[in-house]
Amino acid sequence: MQNPPDAAGGARPLTVSIDARLTERVPGYVLGLIAVPDIDVVRESDDIGAWLTAAEDILHAAGLGKADVSALPAIAAWREAYRAVGVNPNKFPCAAESVVRRVAKGDRLPRINALVDLCNAVSLDTRLPVASCDVGSLQGELEVRLAHGGEVFAPLGAPDATEHPEPGEVVYADHRGRAHSRRWNWRQSDVVRTDVGRRRLLLTVESAHEGGRAEVEEALGWLVEALSGLDGLGAVTGRPLVLDRTTPQGDPFAPRHPSTPSGDPGGHHQQASTPSGDPSGDPSGDRRQPSTPSGHRRPLAPGGPSFVPPAALAR
């Protein structure tokens, strides 16, 4: 089901939208997007491996129990969001709660490939769901919406054992009637899993808590910096796009004028923070930004002798 991008793959439009019925129930939902039109996904990266290990070590040292993880502000908001759409978060935790809970009890995450490991590192640092989706077979539209119940979902690792989502659960769905997630971001489909080789990817960062937009933008900045500068990646990305209740639709693969803030063609929203500039306005150019919600700082520019991931900069 996975195909490398064709020569014009990066130019194919893909409109991503959020169903208004969803934001009526969860008004604070924010979806950050980064288009990666063409990247050669490698099995591993020393930089990303070090970042993920550092993020795991910090959680191991924190000594958080299951209840502590559930009470983290970003995760607690996701639990409320799941309840708002009729899903039991104890049975079906969001993607961020799943990885944080697993690491907090002393485990380490399996190393899949450089892109998946990168997303896991950022998710552990921010407590936000972060995913890499292979959209090489998608075109036209991708909508985060309430399921009708007739969509077809191909489970990760078992694509022939197809399922149908329950009516009303949140899914990422395309115009062909395929669901690419179950219960919002609890599970990803086999169709959009990220594997090694040349891929056309869409990276997603989601939040459901008050003030989450700023944290999504911060995470997008980390991802852009990592994709462009870390060992084994070197990808060119589109400018981050942020969707929410007021800006529910956009094409992350479409070129946008540099002066237009992401997520707002009208220019009313603050531009997402990216590594191309210092949003703090500090004339010294110090790229180390204020602490993120998890108590970490954003990464240093990867131009020095070694890249220092956010987890390694924890106070």
Protein described:
Helix content is 26%, strand content 18%. It has 315 residues and is α+β, with helices and mostly antiparallel strands. Strand 8 and strand 9 (187-188) form a beta hairpin. Helix 2 (46-62) packs parallel to helix 6 and helix 6 runs antiparallel to helix 7 (212-229).
Low-confidence stretches: 264-308
What shape does the CA trace take? globular
| Number of E strands | 12
Cα Rg: 18 Å
Q: What is the terminal separation in angstroms?
A: 44 Å
Write out the strand line-up for the largest beta sheet, numbering strands in chain order.
6-4-1-12
Order of helices and strands: EHEHHHHHEEEEEEEEHEE
What characteristics describe this protein?
12 strands, 315 residues, 7 helices, alpha+beta, globular, 18% strand, 4-stranded mixed beta sheet, 4-stranded antiparallel beta sheet
